[in-house]
Amino acid sequence: MSETQQRFSVIGDKSLVGLKKLIGMPIEDSLEPWCYEASRDNIRHWAHGIGDDNPLWCDPSYAAKTEFGRVQAPPSFIFPLNRSFSGYVGGLAGVHAMFAGIDVTWRRAMMLGTRSRRKCG
Description:
By secondary structure, this protein is an all-alpha fold. The chain has 5 helices and no strands. It has helices spanning 13-20, 40-49, 55-58, 60-64, 78-81.
């Protein structure tokens, strides 16, 4: 490779101006989520993938005996239901998007069969 050939992305004024225009704009068009609903397999795969084998998430016979009466998804299951929550929000070429966190208000437990409503603001 010649010494004059560009190997990495360059952050320039034009790209920063474009990025600044996105401040305060809702993220409405992102990649499809990994999951659209909290199915038994999706919940179990997510729980095992994060190393959480809580029987409330993974064992239907155990979950049936709880106050919920069926399998519940762990709170972190919101991440595969919405890619924006995981940082798929754009950014600068060659630089990963920065994820600072999310603020979610849970009104009820996420139960088996819950469907995603993919609205982010």
